[in-house]
Amino acid sequence: MLADHGQAVVQWPGKRQPCCPPRRIVSLVPSLTELLADLGLEQDVVGITKFCERPAQWRRAKTIVGGTKAIKIDRIVALRPDLVLANKEENVKEQIMELAAHVPVLLTDIHTAGDALQMIQAIAACTCTAERGNHLVAAIESDLKMLRNLSPIRAAYLIWHNPIMAAGGDTFISNMMQHAGFKNVFENRDRYPKLEAHQLGEANPDWLLLSSEPFPFSQKHVPFYQELLPASRIVLVDGQMFSWYGSRMQHFVAYVRHLRQAN
């Protein structure tokens, strides 16, 4: 398996453990909601967040339990879940700890592709879908190996416009950039540093990647950054491809190949 980050990928923050297999699942993370669907657990998922857009039909069929950072704890508890999936970065610590006092919560902490593959296997094992999980992990790992030896491109990846914010070197996004052959010019910065325009200009990346989420960069933002970085290639990218650490990863290699060929 790809090298992991060396820390706990999943943990149980409370004392409650899920039944096996869990039959009432709530997902508080959009990328994990999609993973549950690809593991064949549609009948077992009872609650999702308002940001869980995949699969689209689940937004009509499942109970919406708030946003990723503003969950409705009473609504979740009322669903009587025997498993809740959360994430250290996506969700708010205090809310998750309060929730964990009432229901079993599996908390994920993902920094690398290796972490994500371990997490997929852990969730698949927990939900008695290990065969599907192992197949998915093997396919993703095999695909990622095909991206080795790409010619490196110095790049910056922006997640926000005002203020300007980039992905630092200790993020899952930065690790996926590395797999895609991009050398993060802000790899020595932690998390998501705020940048002044001149700092981005001084970094002078060959490519500037403008993500579709969480800030919805679009063509109208390109002229601003092209003026700031006249020698850089400004590229709009699908943020889910770089930041969703679940079954969306199975589409990453094809996306990267198209991205590099088209630009």
Kindly describe this structure.
With 263 residues, the protein is α/β, with parallel strands linked by helices. It has 2 domains: 10-143, 3-Layer(aba) Sandwich (Rossmann fold); 153-262, Nitrogenase molybdenum iron protein domain (Rossmann fold), CATH 3.40.50. Helix content is 36%, strand content 19%. It has helices at residues 30-38, 58-61, 73-78, 93-100, 113-126, 130-145, 172-179, 197-203, 222-228, 239-243, 252-262, and strands at residues 10-11, 25-27, 45-48, 63-64, 66-67, 70-71, 83-87, 105-108, 153-160, 164-166, 182-184, 194-195, 207-211, 233-237. The strands form 3 sheets. Strands 1-8-7-2-3-4 form a 6-stranded mixed sheet, sandwiched between helices. Strand 7, helix 4 (93-100) and strand 8 (105-108) form a beta-alpha-beta unit. Helix 5 runs antiparallel to helix 6. The chain is globular and about 55 Å long. The model is unreliable at 1-6 (pLDDT under 50).
